[in-house]
Specification:
mainly alpha; rod-shaped
Length: 189
């Protein structure tokens, strides 16, 4: 077993006759007291430093725990934002597809509108042609009607004149009736 350092110092002091045998106990007590004070002086700053470090470690542990919780919340928020970003991207894709579909539909409707406008223009021209034909036909009909009325009026006048002839002018009446019949045949041919 190793010897106590104090014992060694006391043995050396006795050997050198630096202290007397009867003062060794007081000297040892004084040395022990002094060693205790020296140790306390040297250990107090270390103990204070250990206490400070323990407090700092506790604070750091709490901070790490808090930051770990915050980190988890941030991770959860990032996941939520990624999910939301995915939904937004899906919605943007759907909107782009719908926009493209609408542009196609607009193009188709424009082509259809142009075709309808072209058809409308063609029908207007055809309608104008039909109206012109109707006006021409109506004018021709009116002229023909007027002519027929004139012929019928003339025939009626001629028949009236034949009817006014005396009975003894039967031959002249027949000749006039034959002329009227020939004139009516020419008009109806």
């Amino acid at each position: 077993m190793a010897r106590d350092v104090l014992e060694e110092i006391l043995s050396a002091a006795l050997h050198e006759k630096a202290i007397a045998q009867d003062g060794i106990a007081d000297f040892a007590a004084g040395l022990r007291d002094r060693a205790r004070l020296i140790l306390e002086e040297r250990l107090r700053p270390l103990q204070d430093r250990v206490d400070t470090l323990e407090k700092e470690n506790a604070w750091r542990a709490e901070s790490i725990e808090g930051l770990t919780g915050e980190n988890e919340r941030v991770k959860d928020e990032n996941r939520r934002l990624k999910d939301e970003n995915g939904r937004v991207k899906d919605e943007n894709r759907r909107v782009r597809e719908e926009h493209a579909r609408l542009l196609d539909e607009i193009g188709r409707l424009k082509e259809e509108s142009r075709a309808v406008q072209d058809e409308c223009g063609r029908l207007k021209e055809e309608m104008e042609g039909v109206r012109a034909e109707w006006r021409t036909a109506s004018a021709a009909h009116d002229r023909l009607l007027q002519h027929h009325r004139g012929v019928v009026r003339g025939a009626a006048e001629s028949l009236g004149a034949v009817a006014d002839l005396p009975v003894w002018k039967r031959g002249q009446s027949r000749a006039r009736l034959a002329d009227i019949a020939a004139a009516l045949r020419r008009d109806t041919a």
